[in-house]
Amino acid sequence: MVTVDTTAPVITSAGTASGTYRTAFSYAITTATPAVTFAADNLPVSLSIDPATGVISGTPTTPASLAVMLRATDTAGNVATAPLALTLARAVVSVTSIFASDKIADGTTAASVNYAGATLAGVFPGDGVTLAGGSANFSDAAVGTGKTVTITGLTLVGTHAANYQLASTTVTTTASITQQPIAFVSMVFDGLIQTYDGAPKPVSVLTVPGGVSVSVTYDGSPVPPTAAGSYTVNATVTAVGYAGSSSVAFTIARAPQTIAFDPPELNAGEPATLRATSTSGLPVAFELVSGNATLIGATLTPRDGNPIVVRAVQTGGANHLPASVERTFTAFAKLPQSIDFATLVNRMTTDAPFLLSATASSGLPVTFAVVSGPASLSGATLTLTGAPGSVVVRALQPGDADYAAASEVERAFVVTERVLGRFINFSARARIGTGDGVLIAGFSLGGAAEKPLLVRAVGPGLTAFGVAGALANPNIRIVHNGAIVAENDNWTAIGGGGEIAAVAARVNAFPLSTASTDAALLTPVPPGTYTAQVSGADGGTGVALTEIYEASGVASATEPCLLNFSVRAEAGAGENMLIVGFVLAGDTPSRVLIRGIGPTLALFGVANAITNPQLSLRDAAGTLLGENDDWNPVDAATAQSAGAFPLPLGSQDAALVLTLNPGAYTVQLASSNSATGIALLEVYEMP
User: Fold this and answer.
1) Three-class SS string for 353-414?
2) Residue 482: Cβ-neighbour burial (10 angstroms; 0-12, 13-18, 19+)
3) Which residues, listed in sequence order, are joined to residue 567 by a DSSP beta bridge?
4) Which of 427, 531, 446 is nearest to 485 (CA)?
5) pLDDT at 558
6) Could you tell me if 635 and 593 are in contact, meaning their C-beta atoms sit under 8 angstroms apart?
7) What percent of the chain has pLDDT over 90?
8) Which of 88, 144, 461, 548 could form a disulfide with 60 if both were Cys (CB 3.0 to 4.6 A apart)?
9) Single pTM value for the model
10) 209, 215, 204, 216: which is closest to 242 by C-alpha?
């Protein structure tokens, strides 16, 4: 059997090759296994292949880039192919010599070159190739010899120029720049004094000879100035071949300005606004030259109809001169008028809206405005907001064509919260004995918080009021639920009595002598029921006054308050009667129950009780408001509602039920039969 080899040889030579225009070229095809013949497709005419050796050779005559296909055939006729990228490059040419022309200085760097005389290296004989220029420049425009000239953008021209390339398109050579003859220039300046108008102010420069260029600066700046002022102008010749400079003073004067000032319509007694404008746009001020008027800023108020002279002034600025103008005005003298606005009474927060009333002497209508406070206005109807405070109301009459505006009148009043009537002070004067004869004052404090109370027992202090037989050395004790809360013998023993004296003055209690042996306490008391017991500190007896004050000085709807007061003491006739005082505060009347109890005390084990007490009530003016000897059973229900213990029917105890306005009151309990005994006097605030 015959075996046929069908494996093609493998071409192993490089896949790229390069050559240069008119330079001998050679490339050999190699294979991994022997080949007997070789071929190449797409070779240029200047190259050929040896079919036996596979060598491609020749001298390229045209630069080109070619895709050549190589073939190799072995003895069995198997054919191998491979591509060959063939590059035939242009020949490289360099400039070996080139000449630039010397020139006279002209202020530029431009240079002239003789391209035709340039020498090229690398051009093959017989090829038509010459140098063409781009641009040529000296290194600078200054005068000098052998200065470097740089030539850029060189190209090749000629029949065979496409077959060559320059090694560099930029070359250098040397040439000289010689000095041009210098001509000196004189200068004449125009416009050296100008006036500010907001525009730049250049100076004109004329040269001799004419037409020579110069640079001009103003205090070193090339920009012509705008603002008024003095400047130094420097002019320097810049033209080549010329020289010269000059310096002069240049002034931009401040511009004049005018003021437009038109008089307003003026009425005597009424302010008017003056208006004036300046052509500079700067602000204008005003001065009163003469006339009976006031001028504040731009507000002119004539006082009468006589002439008024006002000057409008603009003081000038950096770019403008001062200016002023005077105008004479005559105001129309309106008739004067006044407002009659009566004093307003104080009000309660719950008061209904009410009408304000005021009149103007001119008969013109008066309007109102709330200046401040918890109130609002609708026309002349004033409505309180419900909050307490001080309200200030202004009455106005602006005048009309005949009458000047009236002077505004303000009235103020106080709005307070309506506070229910309440006790703020109790006092009792009685003869102080011993044992059951000591003075026992009971009181109740309502509310939810502590209340500071001032409690006093006055004996020696009564002598100044003409009371005979005063207790010489009283002692006071406050008791709650059988326990002593506080006690005092001499009032100055507590811090020298300074705080007690200050509080006493605030609650309108009469002052005590610091040398007296009167007793006093200032103490906070929680809500509850208490007794104040007054006795002789040394076992003595005599007339004494016990007092209980709300020491906070506040009487409002939310403050803790005294609800009732009672005093047990000896009572008789004349100086020995039992006297109780109390003060009602607030804004509303209070219903009060007052009882004088004697016979019924025996039911509680009190010996020597007064047998037939008699009550009388007087106000601060001494007016008798009510009296009673024997109580009326009709008042039994009233006493029960107040929390008072019941009285037996037919007893000779006394009682009064009255409705009282806020104020000070005095209750007197005396024996109707002139007998002396222990009595209990009670004062209750009714619900």
Assistant:
1) CEECCEEECCCCCCEEEEEECCEEEECCEEEECCCCEEEEEEEECCCCCCECCCCCEEEEEE
2) exposed
3) 681
4) 531
5) 60
6) yes
7) 67
8) 88
9) 0.46
10) 209
